[in-house]
Amino acid sequence: MPRRSTPRPAPAAAPAPLSTAVFQILLSLVDDPLHGYALIQDVRARTGGEVRLTASTLYAAVKRLLDSGWIEELDAPPPGERHDPRRRYYRITPLGREAARAEARRLERMTAQARAKRLLPATPIKEAR
Known about the structure:
mainly alpha; 3 strands; single chain
């Protein structure tokens, strides 16, 4: 059960563009609830180190996301996680999922425009990792 059960009303679609930190946090929470440090690690791993969130950046963004109703804090750790009173777990809300989806669509449109102008190849190139 979430701690914040009555989020402030927010628009159904995200104002564009979202900050990199906000978008990456929402992406990290799409599959499972995570605590703060796990969010930092997930973003770094998923972006190959291109995006590195500091604790202050993370928690400022988390506060804004909680206030907007795009994420919520859980009362207890998710199943399979041990209780640690220092950890706060967050999960994306339906409103947050829609905001992330709207941002992904916006980025997709911008990428299509770059391809049309031949700034990017017509077919995405797979990067070697």
